[in-house]
Specification:
heterodimer, A: mainly beta, four-stranded antiparallel β-sheet, B: mainly beta, globular
């Protein structure tokens, strides 16, 4: 069964610095999709960035980028030039490919709370 | 912009009572999901659906039923609410792109069972 683990419960960083949040996953499938979502203080959950398992290049969107290490089953989220408004809870998630019997399911990690301080 | 609306925003229920959480999406998405959020557990999938009149069990379906009467609507039903079901519930919808699709979440329903 697929599983996603985020071991960092909370992180605090200074504004304008770079932070990396870790995520490891387990899957038997050769094709899968990895996602990062952000939950703001208001509770809103929004999609940030996606990595497809068959792509070697790391995905980048704005000041978010991924560190995809397939042999280690690891997908880290990197936020550069952090801003106060980046303070939120970040969830890693995985969905197996269409060939999997559970491909409709998006499984989330426990989340990492990021605090960006001035 | 995708729109997923949940109702109510919050609810207090009594143990043993019946609770229905509603979700409505205007995105024309095939897939809809119910997740539960508890501190320290992230988001856990309760039920999901990829077509009207059909629902599938997620990872923690016990104590919950789901209903998808139309493409737009997806309900979560607690027939006999229990204290352990106190949590925040999120509904989400997505398109079917073979796995790469992203989820659009509602604002959540905070359920307190007393």
């Amino acid at each position: 069964a697929q599983k996603v683990t985020q071991t960092q419960t909370s992180i605090s960083v200074m504004e304008k610095t770079t932070v990396t949040m870790d995520c490891v996953y387990e899957t038997q499938d050769s094709s899968y999709f990895l996602f990062w979502y952000k939950q703001t203080a208001s509770g809103e959950i929004v999609f940030l960035i996606r990595q497809d398992s068959y792509k070697k290049e790391n995905a980048t969107v704005g000041h978010y980028s991924l560190n995809f290490q397939k042999p280690k089953s690891s997908i880290g989220l990197i936020i550069t030039a952090t801003q106060i408004e980046d303070s939120a809870v970040y969830f890693c998630a995985m969905r197996e490919g269409w060939a999997s019997s559970s491909f409709s399911k998006l499984v989330f990690g426990q989340g990492t709370s990021l605090s960006v301080v001035p | 912009e995708a729109a997923v609306t949940q109702s109510p925003r919050s609810k207090v229920a009594v143990t043993g009572g019946k609770v229905t959480l509603s979700c409505h999406q205007t995105n024309n998405h095939d897939y809809m999901y119910w997740y539960r959020q508890d501190t320290g557990h992230g988001l856990r999938l309760i039920h999901y659906s990829y077509v009207a009149d059909s629902t599938e069990k997620g990872d923690i379906p016990d104590g919950y039923k789901a209903s998808r009467p139309s493409q737009e609507n997806f309900s979560l039903i607690l027939e006999l609410a229990s204290l352990s079901q106190t949590a925040v519930y999120f509904c989400a919808s997505s398109d079917d792109w073979g796995g790469a699709q992203t989820l659009y979440f509602g604002s959540g329903t905070r359920l307190t069972v007393l």
